[in-house]
Design brief:
The chain is an alpha/beta fold. The chain has one domain: TIM Barrel, CATH 3.20.20. The protein has helices spanning about 10-20, 25-30, 45-55, 65-75, 80-90, 105-125, 145-160, 180-190, 200-205, 250-260, 275, 280-295; strands at about 35-40, 60-65, 90-95, 130-135, 165, 195-200, 220-225, 265-270. An eight-stranded parallel β-barrel has the order 1-2-3-4-5-6-7-8, surrounded by six helices. α6 packs parallel to α7 and α7 (about 145-160) crosses α8 (about 180-190).
Amino acid sequence: MTDLGVTRYNRLTVANCVRILRAPTAFGEFVKNPLALHTWTLDTTPLGSVLDIVKTTGWQGIELRRLDFKRAADAGQPAEVVLDLVKRSALGVSCVGVELGWLWAEGAERARLLAAFDESCRWAKSLGCGTVMSPVDRGEGTVARAADSVKEVGEIAGRHGVRLALEFNSQCAQINTLRSVREVLARAAHPRVGLLLDTYHLQRSGATPRDLEEVSPAEIAYVQYSDVPKSGLVAGQALDRLPPGQGSVPFAAWFSAFAGKGYTGYCSYEAPNPAAWARDPATVSREALAATRSAAGGSGA
């Protein structure tokens, strides 16, 4: 026995633990990011219950959809009721969704969508959230018009002090790859708009973690994740998302790539799936968080 009652064996054990904790594993890097749960993951559960579940099962934040506010409005509750409910949960808000369709919209519909965009930005700011997100339009149009629209919404986001994360959709007609959405963003070159990287759409579009090598850290605004089934995929359908480790996504490699770009923001688990909606939501939430931690620590490749 040595001084202070510490044996040589214990000193070696402590030293080994320190080395392990300092090792630059994908999991060790990734867990520095706060983890959020997207409300679409528990779509059939009322928002108040979702907030309770997210908090009690260990997530650090919640991602809200514009649909969450619309459902409240349809029930006669103004947005202020939703905002108060979320604030009282004391959860961090990782992102607030906007209504899609503004990229190539024209006329009165465009005006309506831009007003809705402004409203979502205002809600995000009220919640202390610095990010709003939008998927690209499902249809087709010119890259020039899309870039002009990105500039316009970038100005709206800037007025509220938030940043838009624009997500490509692997199942839509035109902007369905990382390359295609980067083309639009590069042409717009607006500092208030960046990339939303979603492992589901990255995987289904054929992207690999090496594709991030040409992406600058400043381009990345937000990260979402879920797994892709190994078989049975149907073109145009995306309600088959799974917890990490149950499909084909190499999570450790993707998380390591995100960390390598210096991304320190939220990573949001977005996994809409009718099979999950039919189960106990607390169990779904708890299992997803455990799966995230497990998959991020494996080799993944």
